[in-house]
Structures are given as C-alpha cells and as structure tokens.
C-alpha cells in the first residue's frame, strides 16, 4: 500500500487510546505506594484512612514492614516475567494476555477498594493486600510486555504517547491522593474515593483497548503484526527502541524495564569484517561490551528502591501539626519525586554527559549511595538506633529533588548509551540484557530496603 493510502488517525483516537493504556499500566504500582499511610494505619490496628493518617504528626508504626514488602512484591514479578516473557508470548494469544490482565487488575483493585469498608484485623488484611500486590504487578508485567509488542508494529509516535501516559501515572496518583485529602468528606469516604479512581482508570483502559479494532488506522498496523515465535519479544522491543531519542524516557521504575532508546546515526567502532558479517549476536559478547553500563543501571535502581518509598515514606514534617504536616509526605515525597524524576529523564533530550567512554558515569552512579544515609538521618519518628541529623523539612525536600533528578537522568543516560556500545544487529540482545539488569536492580533495591529499615 502506498504511503498516501495509510489511514488517518481520526480525531487522534488511536493516540489517545494508547496514551490511556500507558497510564493504566502503571496506575496500580503508583496508587499502592502513594497510599502507604492508609495501609500503615490499617495495619496499626485502627481502621484509619488517608486523611486521618496524614494529620498524625508522628505517623503510624510500620509493624508489618509494609513499605518494604509492597516494594519487593511489586518488583519481583517484573524480574520473573522478564525471564518468562518469551514462553508466555508463544503459549497465550495477545488478546487474552492484554484483556485478561486488565480484567484481573480491575477486579483486584475493586477488592482493595471494597476492603476500605471492611473491618478486619491487621494480619488477614496484610495477607490479602500482599497477595493483591503480587498478582496485580504480575499481570501488569504481562500487560506491559504485550502492549509493547503491539507498539512494535506501530509508528514510533504511538510508542511515545504510550510512554508519556506511563510517565503521568505517578503524578496522577499523587494528585489523586491530594484531592482525596482536600475533599472535606469523612475519612473512610475519602479513602474509598481514592481507590475507586484507579478502578475507573483501568475500566477506561479496557474500553480503549476494545475500541482499537474498530479504528481503521489501528487495524491497518496491527494486521501487519507477524506471528509470535521464538525471539518475537526481542523484535518488538527493537522496533520500539528506535523511537525518536528527542522524546526522552518517561518516569517510573517499572516502565523503563521495557524501553531502551537507540541512536541509529552513531555507531561504535568495530572491525570491518565484523560489520560485514554480523551473524547471530552472542549474548556473552554483547554483555562484555555493555557490562559496565548495565552495572551502573543496576546500582542506580538499587539505590533508588532501597529508600524509596520504604524510607522516604516514613519521613514526616518537623513543623507543628497542621495543614502542612498533613500534606507534607504526599507532596514532598511522591509528587516531588515523580515530577523531578520526569525532569531528569527529559534532560537527555538536550545533552548526554558523561559519554559512553567516560569513567565519570560509574563515579556519579556510586555517589548516589550517599542518599541512603541522608534519607535515613532525616526526620523519621520511628527510629531506635540512628540519630536525626536533618530534622528540617528543607533538608528532605532538597535531598528528594537531587535524588529524583539524578535517578531520572542516570537511568535515561544508561539506557541511551548501552545500544551505542554494540553493533546494530546486536541491539536487540543489548535491549534484552538491559531489561533484565534493570529488573534485577529494582529487586535488589527492594530487598535491601529491609536492611536499611532495620538499621533505623
């Protein structure tokens, strides 16, 4: 079909649909971690809610280590399904994976919302919530991989819109929390409204996915999708990875696991015969070329997930109880992190420093380890070992801004530099390796959060 015969995206409905689908894939993770005060209050033995917890100046005791468990059980499924994706993609049809995942996520979030009205003892409530977190994030991992596979057949513009939707998920969750707190309704209704919000978002995502086959442009591109076979996941990733680098990489730990941008104009220097006879890429050879960049990526996310949100969500305002202390954590922890992280990722659209041959990148990545003691020495009321050296709110806000910007920038930088260190035909393997190491870093950080929480 000639270029002029390609259908038009009437009213940009296909683009809007993929944007909403991107938003829906990361709503669960962000809504769970933003509502940490609610869960801590329920686990403390009171049927507390978002509003009442926010007015508690000292914050509820995290006796179940909820911060740590919710992070770990959110990231382990990502690592697991990164390894199982090739098998799942061959055995389960794409429509079943996408629509089935969305329906299960919707039902489990509806259960979470319903539990707001159910008076339960902390033990069973914790068990049900952790099971929901595990299964929701497992299906989210399948959903993301399947949607990225679909996007491999679409123009890169739609990949960008999908990623932009994912980039707003964290900000959307933080704003929903703030609106819930400021609504003026009773505490239980406020919490119920908060958890109904992602249910509505997932439902709209289902409607958008079901509407795609009825749009001419979507039918045109999706009909060209090749049959799923061994290695198809790498092919769809490679197609997605060629998105315009100027668009940057959106924020959030999870979504970066399936995005890796390439610069087709800049190739690494290799031997002429190696360029002329590409052959089948070797995982070991590709790993030898990108191992340092991959290690940097692991360390970036290990540091980030070891304190966010396990430690940062425990920090409270040092001012007297009032409106500011009530809104302090949702604004200064979650909303500020997502905004600054998004800003950091967008900086690679304008410059990328240090470059792939510089030894400054490992140094900058290692320096982020300093954020671990800095956050641990902020105003965390529930501590028994370490002193509080940075009690003022300004310290925490400053640390969080630099922490989030550096996380976003270094993640985006490492993901952009890795494919430049290999040959064009090796980029698919490089993308798969970086995806694995990113998921590994997330899981390592979530595991280490237990140790740092114990040291407090």
From TrEMBL:
Major subcellular location class: membrane
GO MF entry, a single one: uridine transmembrane transporter activity
Coiled-coil residue windows: none
Ion transport recorded as keyword: no
Catalyzed reactions: adenine(out) = adenine(in); thymine(out) = thymine(in); adenosine(in) = adenosine(out); inosine(in) = inosine(out)
Keywords attached to this entry: Cell membrane, Glycoprotein, Membrane, Phosphoprotein, Transmembrane, Transmembrane helix, Transport
Membrane spanning residue stretches: 12-39, 69-89, 96-116, 128-149, 161-185, 191-212, 290-315, 327-348, 360-382, 394-417, 429-452
Cellular-component GO terms for this entry: apical plasma membrane; basolateral plasma membrane
Subcellular location: Apical cell membrane; Basolateral cell membrane
Membrane-topology descriptor: Multi-pass membrane protein
InterPro entries xref list: ENT1/ENT2, Eqnu_transpt, MFS_trans_sf
GO biological process: adenine transport; adenosine transport; guanine transport; hypoxanthine transport; thymine transport
Role this protein plays: Bidirectional uniporter involved in the facilitative transport of nucleosides and nucleobases, and contributes to maintaining their cellular homeostasis. Functions as a Na(+)-independent, passive transporter. Involved in the transport of nucleosides such as inosine, adenosine, uridine, thymidine, cytidine and guanosine. Also able to transport purine nucleobases (hypoxanthine, adenine, guanine) and pyrimidine nucleobases (thymine, uracil). Involved in nucleoside transport at basolateral membrane of kidney cells, allowing liver absorption of nucleoside metabolites.
Family: Belongs to the SLC29A/ENT transporter (TC 2.A.57) family.
Name this protein carries in UniProt: Equilibrative nucleoside transporter 2
Source organism per UniProt: Myotis myotis (Greater mouse-eared bat)
């Amino acid at each position: 079909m000639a270029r002029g015969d390609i259908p038009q995206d009437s009213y940009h409905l296909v683009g809007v649909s993929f944007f909403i689908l991107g938003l829906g894939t990361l709503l669960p993770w962000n809504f769970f971690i933003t509502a940490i005060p609610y869960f801590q209050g329920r686990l403390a033995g009171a049927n507390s809610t978002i509003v009442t917890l926010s007015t508690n100046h000292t914050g509820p005791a995290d006796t179940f280590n909820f911060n740590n468990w919710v992070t770990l059980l959110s990231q382990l499924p990502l690592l697991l399904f990164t390894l199982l994706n090739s098998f799942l993609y061959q055995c389960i049809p794409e429509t079943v994976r996408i629509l089935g995942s969305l329906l299960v996520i919707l039902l489990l979030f509806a259960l979470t919302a319903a539990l707001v009205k159910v008076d339960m003892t902390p033990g069973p409530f914790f068990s049900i919530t952790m099971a929901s977190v595990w299964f929701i994030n497992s299906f989210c991992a399948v959903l993301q991989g399947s949607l990225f596979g679909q996007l491999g057949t679409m123009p890169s513009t739609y990949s960008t819109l999908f990623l932009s939707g994912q980039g707003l998920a964290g900000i959307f969750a933080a704003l929903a929390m703030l609106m819930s707190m400021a609504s003026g309704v009773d505490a239980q209704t406020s919490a119920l409204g908060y958890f109904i919000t992602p249910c509505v978002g997932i439902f709209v995502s289902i409607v958008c996915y079901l509407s795609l086959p009825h749009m001419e442009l979507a039918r045109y591109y999706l009909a060209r999708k090749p049959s799923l076979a061994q290695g198809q996941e790498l092919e769809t990733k490679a197609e997605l990875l060629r998105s315009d680098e100027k668009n940057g990489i959106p924020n959030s730990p999870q979504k970066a696991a399936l995005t890796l941008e390439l610069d087709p104009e800049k190739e690494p220097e290799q031997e002429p015969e190696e360029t002329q006879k590409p052959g089948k890429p070797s995982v070991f050879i590709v790993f030898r070329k990108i191992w340092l960049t991959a290690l940097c990526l692991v360390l970036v996310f290990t540091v980030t997930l070891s304190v966010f949100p396990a430690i940062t969500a425990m920090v409270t305002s040092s001012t007297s109880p009032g409106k500011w202390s009530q809104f302090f954590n949702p604004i200064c922890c979650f909303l500020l992190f997502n905004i600054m992280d998004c800003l950091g990722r967008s900086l690679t659209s304008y410059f990328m420093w240090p470059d792939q041959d510089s030894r400054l990148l490992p140094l900058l990545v290692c320096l982020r380890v300093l954020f671990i003691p800095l956050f641990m020495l902020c105003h965390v009321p529930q501590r028994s070992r370490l002193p509080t050296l940075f009690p003022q709110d300004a310290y925490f806000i400053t640390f969080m801004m630099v922490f989030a910007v550096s996380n976003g920038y270094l993640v985006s930088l490492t993901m952009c530099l890795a494919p430049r260190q290999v040959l064009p035909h090796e980029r698919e393997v490089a993308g798969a390796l970086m995806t694995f190491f990113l998921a590994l870093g997330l899981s390592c950080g979530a595991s280490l959060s237990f140790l740092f929480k114990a040291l407090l």
